[in-house]
Specification:
The chain contains 18 helices and 17 strands. The chain starts with a strand and ends with a helix. The relative contact order is 0.09. The protein is 38% helix and 14% strand. With 495 residues, the protein is of the alpha/beta class. It has a nine-stranded mixed β-sheet with strand order 14-13-12-11-10-9-15-16-17, covered by helices on one side. Strands 6-1-7 form a three-stranded antiparallel β-sheet. The longest helix is centred in the last third of the chain and has 24 residues.
Length: 495
């Protein structure tokens, strides 16, 4: 019997336990052949040993048992085979590995992503409970690594160059001039591997403008990272598609602003960009490469963004639409002239509540969940599980917050920046209590505090000065939910 780890699965060995996860926790939900959801799992120390000998190439049970026996010298080989077979069988049922009587059968059962098997995911799926633990995976990590945040997600802007000039972009156009040095990129990957990183996001600018983009993808695959790409896809070609197919990407995220070419091109300020992006989306779908369409709603497309959502549904592609845009990271705010007014957002919520009957109910659920938050809770995940690196090696908290540099990987290791940077430590120490205005606000459960929104729009870049625009959004959300509940009660005749 042959066994192998699925191509879209990652395993990390932490010594006293192991962590295994698949590559489908972004945008899509895909079940295994038995119809069960696939997610992630914490395994015991011995389970980590059993997993550590597996790889993407099929191996016989005898071969695997021999490798395992080198770490369990007191156990006889037959007992190891029995335990290994049972353990691998359970993992196969959960969709993490495959087996086969022959090498060929084992490889053929390693199913690939397919749009025929997926269901667009509208809500975040919770982590599955893990065998032997009563906590969710994230709860387990939080408790196990208490006071020692683990970097699991890294965003790398491999170039600031871009062939579009989107009117709402948070990157000043005059700063879109540099590429990351390949040696620096490869060095970052090596550091990430040592830190047990899981997910990488590659973006720009436009990442495909980097001459080494394909090589970068190939190297990420060698390191077994889960990779997400942010691109306008206008430079997509056959070679890139072939590498994406080999890479088993987490997803490609692309912005499509309208199904009206004139409106899309008006936003990108590049004539012909709509046709290139649309055709590239269809080409990726044709090749079963997972896609996520982003459709930011701004003044230019407020009357037609729904066409993008409908078009995506017709092709079984997830479309995310949002009316949140932030100021440029140099604190200039010209791009915000494209941002929707409170009345504009009110109209959008009204439309969505008609088209999606559960929309306001979901907002209410999120608000109910936030009522349990305390003044000692964290603000967000920046510098707790994620961080970003720019093309020049500067490290900053999150995409968009580029004037708050916490270190540079040309001068200091990523691990040292993560653990020792004064600015990183400062952000980690911030809690909800550091925003007293928000703690006392009657709409706080309808708001998502975001420091980069505050910092970019503040003349001095202060992340603690609350952005009034988003306060008004919270007021609007609360009023619309209360009005909806009142109308619902009246319509049911309950007083």
């Amino acid at each position: 019997m042959y066994f192998k780890q699925k191509s879209n699965v990652m395993f990390r060995n932490y010594g006293s336990f192991g962590y295994i996860t698949d590559n489908r926790n972004f945008g899509y939900k895909q079940a295994n052949d038995d119809g069960n959801d696939i997610g992630d799992k914490i395994v015991s120390q011995s389970g980590a040993v059993f997993l550590s000998v597996l790889n993407k190439i099929p191996q016989t049970l005898d071969c695997l048992a021999e490798k395992i026996s080198m770490q369990f010298t007191n156990a006889d080989i037959e007992t190891i085979k029995i335990d290994a077979r049972e353990f691998y069988y359970l993992l196969e049922l959960e969709g993490f590995i495959v087996s086969g009587e022959t090498l060929q059968e084992c490889n053929e059962k390693d199913s690939k992503f397919s749009y025929k098997k997926v269901q667009p995911k509208n809500e975040k799926e919770g982590c599955s409970l893990t065998k032997g633990f009563e906590k969710s995976t994230q709860e387990f990590f939080d408790e196990y690594f208490k006071n020692e945040p683990q970097l699991t997600n890294l965003h790398i802007e491999i170039t600031s160059k871009c062939n579009e000039r989107c009117v709402h972009c948070y990157i000043p156009h005059e700063n879109k001039v540099n590429n990351i040095e390949p040696d620096l990129f490869y060095n970052i990957l090596e550091q990430c591997k040592k830190m047990n990183l899981l997910h990488l996001t590659l973006s720009g600018g436009e990442p495909m403008m980097h001459n080494d983009f394909i090589d970068f993808l190939r190297k990420c695959n060698e390191y077994n990272f889960s990779v997400n790409i942010l691109s306008n896809l206008t430079l997509l070609n056959k070679s890139i598609i072939e590498e994406m197919k080999r890479n088993r990407l987490l997803s490609v995220q692309v912005s499509l602003y309208s199904m009206d070419a004139n409106i899309h091109d008006e936003i990108t300020q590049i004539k012909g960009s709509f046709e290139k992006t649309k055709n590239a989306i269809l080409k990726l779908r044709e090749n079963d490469i997972p896609l996520q369409i982003s459709c930011p709603i701004i003044k230019q497309n407020i009357n037609c963004y729904n066409d993008v959502i409908d078009w995506g549904k017709a092709y079984n592609i997830n479309v995310g639409s949002d009316y949140v845009i932030i100021a440029r990271y140099d604190h200039t705010t010209q791009n915000l002239s494209n941002r929707l007014s409170v009345n504009d957002v009110k109209e959008i919520i009204n439309q969505r509540s008609v088209n999606e009957p559960q929309y306001l109910e979901l907002i209410e659920r999120e608000a109910e969940h936030k009522k349990n938050m305390t003044p000692d809770d964290f603000i967000c995940s920046v510098c707790h599980s994620s961080i970003c690196i720019a093309d020049n090696g500067n490290v900053y908290p999150c995409a968009g917050w580029q004037d708050y540099v916490v270190g540079n990987v040309n001068e200091t290791s990523l691990n040292d920046i993560w653990k020792k940077s004064t600015k990183v430590r400062y952000l980690r120490e911030l809690r909800r209590r550091d925003f007293p205005k928000c703690i006392k606000c009657p709409e706080n459960e309808f708001c998502t505090m975001c420091m980069v929104r505050n910092a970019n729009e503040h003349p001095l870049g202060d992340p603690l000065v609350v952005n009034e625009y988003f306060c008004n959004m919270a007021k609007l959300n609360k009023k619309m939910v209360l009005d909806w509940k009142c109308n619902l009660i009246n319509s049911q005749g309950k007083y």
